[in-house]
């Protein structure tokens, strides 16, 4: 990793165009992000990054605080590149005037150059746009966020700046016991405590749903068959929609009282059926509690 080339991405642009959202997305993509770094500190900051092996993808968000910032920014970028320290990539975020006005009204905030609330919103936006013209002309990427949802914005960032692009979609099927607490990271939780319980069959009680006798007892019941086919149909209908929305990991939690019999059996069958179309991992959270040592 010490020989990995370091990347510097400078994020700037119109106030209200989405720099905060982009900063969070870049962090999700593995960037070390510094927000509102004064441009005059960019050279010193990059020297620290260069002397560390801990950071390889770095993004700096530069916002308009005083008018001289953008003159300073161009000077600092030129200095870095002239010294051969780094080839900086500049991402400029833009949006139309009417969209920016609407966003400011929605958040009840003012653009930096709105004259402390005494001037018109549009006047402040247009003055800022004029000041930012030189850095916009120097930018490698100009991204107009006017008509982008947060999901669409993230997709464009991934396509432009992520090494891994996008993780393939996968499913985790989990069994659990309600008496040990619900999983907090599940996307769907299904309660199967209404199904016939092998716990009340003495010869089945010591075993788990991984045992064929328990599995067959649960899955061969008429109630189970009706429920299971409806559940599978529901999931097969919903999962393509989650993929379309950009979901990468989808967790389905199946719970019964103790996480020993019914939830394990249903989870086993569900994992088998979903694995015909998708990559599937299966986790039985409580099974280790019931395995004799």
Number of alpha- plus pi-helical segments: 9
Give the CATH level 1 class of the largest domain: Alpha Beta
User: Which of globular, elongated, flat, extended, rod-shaped describes the shape?
Assistant: elongated
- Fraction of residues in helices? 40-55%
GO molecular function: ATP binding; GTP binding
Keywords: ATP-binding, GTP-binding, Nucleotide-binding
Task: Walk me through the structure.
Residues 7-162 form the RapZ-like N-terminal domain. Pfam families: PapZ_C, RapZ-like_N. One of its GO terms (molecular function) is GTP binding. Residues 170-287 form the RapZ C-terminal domain. ATP binds at residues 13-20. A 5-stranded parallel β-sheet has the order 2-3-1-4-5, sandwiched between helices. It has a 4-stranded parallel β-sheet with strand order 7-8-6-9, covered by helices on one side. The chain has helices at residues 19-28, 42-50, 68-82, 97-107, 121-138, 150-161, 212-219, 222-244, 262-274, and strands at 7-13, 32-35, 57-61, 89-94, 141-144, 170-177, 188-191, 249-256, 280-284. The chain is elongated, with a radius of gyration of 27 Å. It contains 9 helices and 9 strands. Strand 2, helix 2 (42-50) and strand 3 form a beta-alpha-beta unit. The model has no long low-confidence stretch (mean pLDDT 86). Helix 3 (68-82) runs parallel beside helix 5 (121-138). By secondary structure, the protein is of the alpha/beta class. It has 2 domains: 7-161, 3-Layer(aba) Sandwich (Rossmann fold), CATH 3.40.50; 170-289, no CATH class. Helices cover 41% and strands 17% of the residues.
